Protein: 8-oxo-dGTP diphosphatase
Amino acid sequence: MDSDVQTPKLIRVVGAAIVRDGTVLCGQRGHGKSLAGYWEFPGGKIEAGETPRQALQREIEEELLCEVNVDSPVCTSRYTYDFGMVELTTFLCHLVSGEPTLTEHEQIAWVEPSQMPTLNWAPVDHEAVERISHMVLHIRKKSVSRTILQMI
Ligand SMILES: Nc1nc2c([nH]c(=O)n2[C@H]2C[C@H](O)[C@@H](COP(=O)(O)OP(=O)(O)OP(=O)(O)O)O2)c(=O)[nH]1
Structure:
């Protein structure tokens, strides 16, 4: 039997949570793009034949003109927008070479973990933002302890 309910198109996307000095690089989507004005993790759609990690390295080179090491996955979340269902997988990343450069975002910013939830994130990002803010805080605490131990 036919149904009026259509399955939304699945759009597989990867996002990079680039961590440096206890802050995370966040990007605000530019005018003219879908979800303009929302904050996101830099990245983009996975192309045919790519692994998620390959897609993320390519997207970061294209979008931020720098190279990252793709570390552990954070989570995979889905959200149905009016243009389709985005499945976002977010990875912790570290800079390998180059400096993130603004090309297509409205702005990019290194954000303190405690401040990340105050930004207006794209709906599919909320789970990753919550998790990442805790993970980074944990790493920061450990590195602070290490620093204190070295000073004694
Ligand atoms: N890169 C990225 N995209 C995200 C995030 N959250 C989220 O909803 N998206 C959406 C926005 C886009 O619809 C899609 C990512 O595709 P893309 O980055 O290649 O899209 P695009 O701006 O080049 O093209 P378009 O969607 O405007 O056609 O996923 C996120 O954290 N990072």
Observations:
- Residues 11, 13, 15, 33-35, 40-41, 43-45, 86, 88, 122, 124-125 surround 8-OXO-2'-deoxyguanosine-5'-triphosphate (CB under 6 Å).
- The chain has a mean pLDDT of 89.
